[in-house]
Design a protein that fits this description.
It is a single chain. With about 300 residues, this protein is mostly helical. The chain folds into two domains: about 120 residues, no CATH class; about 150 residues, no CATH class. About 65% of the residues lie in helices and about 0% in strands. It is rod-shaped and about 135 Å long. About 5% of the residues have low confidence.
Amino acid sequence: MTDAFGDRSKRVAVLAGRLRTVQSELADEDTRVREEQLVAVLDQGLATEQTQDVPAFLDELLTWFPGGFGNADGVATASPTPAVKSKAPEPRSAAEWAAGLVQVWQGLSEAERSALTVKLTDGGVIQPVQAGVPVPPAVEQDLRAKLQLQPGEKFDANRIMPLAGLLLDFVMKIDRLAWTAWTKSLAPPTTDVRPSGPIARFVKNYMSGADSNLPGLGLTPELQRLQQLTSALVGGINDAGKNYAETWFGQLAPASIKEVAGSSAFRNQKVDCWDLYESRAGSMDREHIQREIRQAVARFVEDWMKKLNR
């Protein structure tokens, strides 16, 4: 009996929804036309019910229309079927209306659902869907300033989230490359410049709010360290190349060798210059050159990081 009653309630809810839809669509029609359509929908709904179950079905259906089926102005009218005799039902509670609406929703078409959504939105029952991504004015102003956007230039807030994903992927790759290059190839054993962990961990803590319990280990200072390290590595490469070129050019330049070798009437200057060149160039093996450049970059990075963290 419980299952049968539950199934009947669902059928009643669906039929009530159809009756209300017809009533709304025909609001501007003549009363006779509207009643004929309502009766037709009602007859169609009752056609699948057993004869002995029709009275109970109609009694439950009337609970969806406490004031009758009503006309376009909300004035109660007679039920579509004069044969129905029932006492006035008790008004339904808000919870019962909500449960009934959920049941009706399952049997509605997409067009009917859209129309119902509009009515519920207009009535303040549900909040309207925001068009696009809401961006606080201060944030939009800051982004416009950083991007140097003019007042008339487009600012599509819907692209912020995809952009955040692209930039996060870029930062994570730079973080891994920069710290790996420093720790594996350049950093001396005694360095104080060491990574605090992958940047993804700091982003995760920031997004979840966990960084509020980690003083000094927030995302902002870690991003600043990554920026400083990247700048130092780029600057160090440039500085090391320049210094190394000056050092070895001074050692091997013909003018420098001639100046040191000097001249003598009793000796062969070309032989002396060659001997000096061989002496100086003899230490220029591949490992020595690589080590000199790496050490120069490392010194630049450490000096740079210390200077910025004072």
